[in-house]
Design brief:
331 residues; elongated; 12 helices; 39% helix; alpha/beta
């Protein structure tokens, strides 16, 4: 199987150190071979700063990985020092270049899957990044419309899809439509089968309003938009229920009844995921011709360079990318 690639993310954030820690723990964690796309100088600085006993092997292509032996293979895009907690323009430029190259390797099939390190979107915009986030960037690299790339957050206890993502809460009702709900849930259900091996996914759909609208007393979006979308998906053969009150969907007994919770807005999905699986949450992009995962956290500049950052989500992202890629290979 082809190796995985991981873009380093912002050099001043926690991404480089967590990738380095994951690499050092790869045998104990049962992780597949992966290369880091970024800077050999940066990763040497990470290893020295954090006391990691690992050599760095700059490589020119993924075909050089075998020659690296036990050293960390780094597709070297340029020299940059390790200055944790101090983001700058040079670091943002490296993060963007690493994301672009790692995505290219996955799209061309040279890599079996892509893991993206956390970035600082505002810093990237200063160096030419014109996308709302990495999901949209990777979708464009794949030739997929951004609206067909669906964000799923997954952990050991819960999988969630926010049907609207990085928009103000005040705009959510206006952005919801039956067509959007049907399309994104259908994409998510197909991905659960293809990438996660769930033959007949069970989907639970949250309402928008308190008490799922309480028969129109607290809003009519459930009756006017959400319920018709659910009915259409059910008529198409999907195992789907709702709209459910959002405050009753995430206790243990409720979670046992579905494989995926489809939520109406960002925090409705991410709050329960982070409460239940904070150290093992993975951001997965569904609907792409490639496998793309990312740890479900940001750059965390405030703790970069310390030992406070936890490698669990990075390890989980690498493992999940590998498992999804294996399922695609076996299909």
């Amino acid at each position: 199987m082809r190796p995985l690639v991981a873009s380093v993310g912002d050099p001043a954030g926690v991404g480089p150190q967590l990738l380095a820690q994951a690499f050092c723990d790869r045998a104990a964690q049962g992780l597949p071979p992966f290369a880091i796309v970024g800077s050999a100088q940066l990763m040497r600085g990470v290893a020295a700063h954090h006391g990691l006993a690992v050599d760095i092997a700059p490589i020119a292509s993924l075909s050089d990985m075998d020659a690296a032996g036990d050293a960390m293979p780094v597709l070297d895009l340029g020299a940059i020092p390790y200055r944790p907690g101090h983001p700058d323009r040079d670091g943002a430029s490296l993060a963007l270049a690493a994301l672009g190259e790692a995505a290219r390797l996955a799209v061309t099939g040279e890599a079996s899957a892509l893991i993206t390190g956390p970035i600082a979107k505002a810093a990237l915009q200063d160096v030419g990044f014109a996308h709302p986030g990495q999901t949209e960037f990777v979708a464009e690299a794949c030739g997929v419309p951004a609206e067909d790339a669906v964000m799923m957050l997954a952990g050991p206890s819960l999988r969630v899809v926010p049907l609207t993502v990085h928009v103000p809460l005040s705009e959510v009702p206006g952005r919801l439509s039956a067509a959007l709900i049907e399309k994104r849930i259908a994409i998510a259900a197909a991905a659960l089968t293809r990438d996660f091996g769930i033959a007949a996914p069970r989907i639970a759909v949250a309402g928008l309003n308190p008490h799922a609208g309480e028969n129109g007393r607290m809003g009519d979006e459930e009756a006017r938009i959400i319920a018709p979308a659910i009915a259409a998906l059910r008529d198409a053969g999907m195992a789907i229920t709702g709209p459910h009150p959002g405050d009753a969907m995430f206790h243990a007994a409720a979670r046992a009844g579905y494989d995926l919770a489809a939520c109406m807005y960002h925090d409705q999905a991410l709050i329960p995921l982070k409460v239940l699986d904070f150290d093992a949450g993975v951001n997965v992009t569904l609907g792409l011709p490639i496998v793309r995962t990312s740890p479900d956290h940001g750059t965390a500049f405030g703790i970069a360079g310390t030992d406070a950052a936890h490698a669990g989500p990075t390890i989980a992202a690498i493992r999940m990318a590998h498992e999804c890629a294996l399922r695609r290979l076996a299909a």
